[in-house]
Structures are given as structure tokens and as C-alpha cells.
């Protein structure tokens, strides 16, 4: 409990201070509401459109979570396969890096052409943007297993699968957790970009579409509310991944042990 | 001081222990000559300590004996005392070729031969019990059996209270005892120790030396210890082999004939033997012509 307060209190207090400063600045400077609404105006808009925002948040959260899960599985399996063969690694890794350089906004229309409007395209968009950090970090982790422990497994005549399962994968866990944390935030970004291009209007419109619709009708307060909810989805996903990472590392890895001591 | 020249492995001492004979072993790595000439003999159930200059090829010699690497030239023979094992030898070209098939089986690194390294090499994500059970797990022993065997070995090493601790929770000395327990859990016939206590403080090191000595007396496992410490070598081993120069060469073995039981490090005999080893390590090199490459 003491730890939660020690870790959680500073950012909460900072956020409250910034919101208060923002509210005061708007009260004093009185900018047009469509340029910069105050935090209280945004809160009022969020309450007024809570039903629409809740549905949109759920829709975006589902897309982001599915995209994240696909990225996690593809990234970890892909890295494990690449790690088994130097030829595969030399052949595919540069292409994966190159693919990462292509702007997602440019790919998104292709996803609509191939997968149509809606969930499939937004999930694919989230997965594409989130997969590379998982792949790269997992591959680094798998390759950086302690040479002394590798020799130990050679002495035991461990086969490739045993070496991967009992040595490389556990020792790559800290890197995998890092990759997944980065992917958690990116998957929300990927989802929203996908929604901008391939989202759908109506009752189940996701947050990306709410942002677009609110912008077109000069509802800046609603834009802010939707953007804040995007951040909440990303933060929630990041929190879940961080917690699972902490669970898997807490008893042995320096990053968690040093925090405990 | 009594010196012995390498000779044939004799079948005496503890049943099942492995004897080692290495003849005219040379090893190069990436064009760099690491060992110029090494002759080693350890009888089944014997205890040999290898001392010498840093970078003189002591660890390389140990890894060659354990089969982790192959010699550039020379011959290494491992023979089981119970005559139920196959001997392996390395030909001049370094390829492994069976030279004397006895009754059955093969000498297997990881079970018949165990290593213990200076860093301990414990898996940090496994608790003590699962670390000690690892070699048995690798050999397909069932979970219940391997846990029971690991638990029994930890009890022998007085580590029962630490079974469920993680390596990060252990002191350096305890980590080494866990590593030693893991090396012994397969009941190896040849134990290869590469400066296992080199990173520990003097008090812990002396305590673990005594544990190792008692362990060797109880089990009779053939043991080869690489160490920087002359005192450790003399107090533990029955024979000390000095490696000199770069690339390293072995000198004639020094027999250690101290009385059985706890070693009196201030006794005249102990001090004299340490001086013998020291003199061999520091004397001007006078190589026999037949040992020249």
C-alpha cells in the first residue's frame, strides 16, 4: 500500500496541478471554445456524450487488444523461428526492419482494400504497428542468453527445443516484457490510425471516428474527451502488460529486485 | 617431493570412477597456440589439482578432458574403473574415435562427467531445488524422482532450508554449494572443477574446501580441480600438476602425501609441499627435449 502511494501519488498530483493551471488559464485568457476548451468543459461534454464515448472506447479497446495479442504471438513466434536459423535471420530480419519504416497511414488504405471497413482492418493496423518491437526485443533476448549457461546446456546435450524452452525463452523474458510494453502503446496508435481510414460511423463508431466526427462539427471538447479515452485505453493495456511482466520477473530479475530492495 | 610421469590408467580405487590419461595434447584456437604440450594422468577415484600461470591453458585443458572442445593433436583417454564404459580417444587430427570398446555404454558428459564453474552458472529464474534437479531433468528423470534426488543432495550439502529460495537470494558461498550440489546430483564418475571457489572470500573458501575434501573422501569421484591457489591445491588434491608458460606446458606431477583427515595448514609437511609447487611454478624453464613441439 505504501509502495502504491509512493509510486502513484506524484503523477496524480502533477496531473491535477496541470489541469488546475489549464482551467485557470482558460478562465483568464478566455480563448474561443473551439480552439481550447477548459478541462471542466471537456468533462461536461464527456458526461453528456458518455454513452457514445463508452461504446467507442469499448470498440477501440477490443481492436487494440486483439491487434496487440496478434502482434505478441507473431512477434514471439517469429523471433523464436528466426533465432533457430542464421539464414532465416539474415534473410527476413532486414525485411521486417524495412517494413517497419513504411508509414502506417500509407498502408492503412491497402488494409481497407483487402479487409474491408471495420474491425478486421483496424485490428490488422494495430498488429502491424505493434509487431516489430516484440519481434526485435524477443530476438535480442533470445540471442543474448548467457554463454556460460549455453555451455551448460551443451554439456547436458540439450536439443534445440529444450534449449529454447528452458534457457533462451526464460532469459529473454525481460526483453519480451519491454517489447510488449512498447507494443501496448503502439497498438492503440495503430488502431486509431486504422479507424481514421477504415472506421465506421453509427452507434458503434470507435474513438477514431468520434474524433473525426467531433472535429468536423467543431466539437473540440468532444475531441479532447475522445483523445483522453484513447490514452486511457493505451494506459490500461500498458498497465496489464507491466503487471504481468512484474509477476514473471519479480523473483529473479534485477529490474524488479532492485525496486523491492 | 615425489614426481610421477604419465602412465597407463590402472583399474583400482572406487568402482565406477573414471580414469583420465592425456598424452602429448596440443590445442590451438583461431591460430593461437593455447596448450603446447600436456600430459595428464588421474587414476580412477583420484584427485588432481592443476595450478599455473593465468592464461596458461588450465581451463582449456579441463574443457578438453571434459570433451567440451577437441584437441588439435594428442590423445585423451577416459576409462571407467568398472570396465563397463567405452573409452574415447582423440586422434592426432582431433577427431573423436573409439579406441577400446569394453562391455557397454558410453561415457556421457553431463551425467558421468560433471562440471562446476567459478560463476556457478545457476539459472536465475529457477529456485534452488529446480536448479539442482536440472541435470536429471535433462536426462528425462521423472519430476518426483528428480526432485527427491535433488532434495537429498541439498540435504547432504546442508542446504535444505534454501530449497525454495531463488539464486538472487543466496550468498556467493551458498550459490557455489548449490552449483556443487547440481554437479553431484547425477552421481558423476568424473568431476571437473574450474576455480569453483575463486570468487569467494577466504573464510567461505576454506569452509567449502573442507566440504569438498570430505565429499571426495565419501564418494571417491575422480576429481580434477583447476585453481590459482597453491594452498588450496595442496590441501585438497592427492596430486598437483603445474602448467607453465604461454602456450602452456605441463610439468611432472607432484604427489601430495599428507595424512588423511583435516589438513593442518601450518604443518611443516604442508608448507614444504606448497614450496615444492611454488618452486616448480617459478623455476627457470628447463624443458626436456622430447617435450619440445
Topology summary:
The complex is a heterodimer of chains A (261) and B (293).
Chain A: H1 2-29, H2 39-48, H3 50-84, H4 86-101, H5 104-115, H6 119-143, H7 147-155, H8 160-198, H9 207-216, H10 220-249, H11 254-260
Chain B: E1 3-4, E2 18-29, E3 32-42, E4 47-52, H1 58-65, E5 73-80, E6 87-90, E7 96-100, E8 113-117, H2 128-138, H3 143-156, H4 172-184, E9 190-194, H5 202-219, E10 222-226, H6 230-236, E11 239-244, E12 248-250, E13 253-255, H7 268-282
Parallel strand pairs in B: 3-12, 4-10, 4-11, 8-9, 9-10
Antiparallel strand pairs in B: 1-13, 2-3, 2-5, 6-7, 11-12, 11-13
Helix pairs in contact in B: 2-3, 2-4, 3-4, 6-7
Report on the architecture of this protein:
The complex is a heterodimer of chains A (261) and B (293). Chain A is built from 11 helices and no strands. Chain A is mostly helical and 261 residues long. Chain B has 293 residues and is an alpha/beta fold. Chain B has 2 domains: 17-107 and 189-284, P-loop containing nucleotide triphosphate hydrolases (Rossmann fold); 122-188. Chain B has 7 helices and 13 strands. In chain B, helix 2 runs parallel beside helix 4, helix 3 crosses helix 4 (172-184) and helix 6 crosses helix 7. The longest helix of chain B has 18 residues, at 202-219. The chains are: A mainly alpha (261), B alpha/beta (293).
Amino acid at each position: 500500500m505504501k509502495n502504491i502511494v509512493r509510486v502513484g501519488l506524484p503523477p496524480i498530483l502533477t496531473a491535477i496541478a496541470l489541469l488546475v493551471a489549464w482551467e485557470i488559464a482558460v478562465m483568464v485568457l478566455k480563448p474561443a471554445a473551439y480552439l481550447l476548451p477548459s478541462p471542466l468543459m471537456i468533462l461536461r461534454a464527456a458526461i453528456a456524450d458518455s454513452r457514445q464515448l463508452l461504446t467507442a472506447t469499448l470498440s477501440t479497446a477490443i481492436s487494440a487488444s486483439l491487434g496487440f495479442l496478434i502482434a505478441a504471438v507473431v512477434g514471439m513466434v517469429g523471433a523464436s523461428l528466426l533465432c533457430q536459423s542464421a539464414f532465416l535471420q539474415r534473410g527476413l530480419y532486414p525485411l521486417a526492419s524495412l517494413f517497419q519504416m513504411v508509414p502506417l497511414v500509407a498502408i492503412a488504405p491497402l488494409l481497407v482494400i483487402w479487409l474491408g471497413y471495420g474491425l478486421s482492418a483496424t485490428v490488422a493496423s494495430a498488429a502491424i504497428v505493434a509487431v516489430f518491437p516484440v519481434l526485435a526485443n524477443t530476438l535480442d533476448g533470445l540471442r543474448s542468453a548467457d554463454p556460460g549457461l549455453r555451455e551448460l546446456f551443451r554439456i547436458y546435450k540439450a536439443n534445440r527445443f529444450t534449449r529454447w524452452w528452458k534457457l533462451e525463452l526464460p532469459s529473454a523474458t525481460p526483453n519480451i516484457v519491454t517489447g510488449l510494453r512498447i507494443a501496448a502503446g503502439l497498438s492503440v496508435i495503430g488502431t486509431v490510425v486504422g479507424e481514421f481510414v477504415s472506421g465506421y460511423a453509427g452507434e458503434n463508431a470507435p474513438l477514431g471516428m468520434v474524433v473525426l466526427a467531433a472535429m468536423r462539427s467543431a466539437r473540440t471538447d468532444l475531441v479532447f474527451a475522445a483523445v483522453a479515452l484513447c490514452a486511457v485505453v493505451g494506459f490500461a493495456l500498458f498497465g496489464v502488460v507491466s503487471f504481468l511482466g512484474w509477476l514473471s520477473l519479480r523473483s529473479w530479475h534485477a529490474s524488479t529486485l532492485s525496486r523491492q530492495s | 617431493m615425489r614426481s610421477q610421469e604419465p602412465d597407463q590408467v590402472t583399474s583400482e580405487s572406487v568402482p565406477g570412477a573414471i580414469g583420465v590419461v592425456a598424452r602429448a595434447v596440443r590445442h590451438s584456437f583461431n591460430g593461437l597456440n593455447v596448450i603446447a604440450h600436456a600430459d595428464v594422468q588421474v587414476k580412477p577415484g583420484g584427485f588432481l589439482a592443476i595450478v599455473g600461470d593465468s592464461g596458461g591453458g588450465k581451463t582449456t585443458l579441463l574443457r578438453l578432458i571434459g570433451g567440451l572442445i577437441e584437441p588439435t593433436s594428442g590423445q585423451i583417454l577416459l576409462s571407467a574403473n568398472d570396465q563397463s564404459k567405452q573409452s574415447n580417444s582423440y586422434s592426432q587430427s582431433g577427431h573423436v574415435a573409439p579406441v577400446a570398446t569394453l562391455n557397454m555404454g558410453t561415457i556421457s558428459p553431463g551425467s558421468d562427467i560433471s562440471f562446476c564453474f567459478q560463476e556457478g552458472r545457476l539459472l536465475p529464474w529457477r529456485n534452488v531445488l529446480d536448479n539442482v534437479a536440472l541435470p536429471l531433468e535433462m536426462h528425462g528423470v521423472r519430476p518426483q524422482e528428480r526432485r527427491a534426488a535433488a532434495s537429498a543432495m541439498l540435504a547432504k550439502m546442508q542446504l535444505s532450508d534454501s530449497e525454495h529460495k531463488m539464486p538472487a537470494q543466496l550468498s556467493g558461498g551458498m550459490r557455489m554449494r548449490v552449483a556443487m550440489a547440481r554437479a553431484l546430483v547425477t552421481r558423476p564418475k568424473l568431476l571437473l572443477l574450474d576455480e569453483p571457489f575463486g570468487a569467494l572470500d577466504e573464510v567461505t573458501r576454506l569452509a567449502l574446501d573442507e566440504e569438498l575434501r570430505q565429499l571426495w573422501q565419501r564418494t571417491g569421484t575422480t576429481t580434477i580441480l583447476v585453481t590459482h591457489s597453491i594452498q588450496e591445491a595442496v590441501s585438497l588434491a592427492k596430486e598437483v600438476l603445474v602448467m607453465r608458460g604461454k602456450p602452456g606446458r605441463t610439468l611432472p606431477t607432484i604427489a601430495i602425501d599428507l595424512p588423511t583427515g583435516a589438513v593442518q595448514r601450518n604443518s611443516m609437511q604442508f608448507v614444504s609441499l606448497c614450496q615444492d609447487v611454488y618452486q616448480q611454478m617459478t623455476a627457470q624453464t628447463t624443458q626436456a627435449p622430447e617435450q619440445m613441439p
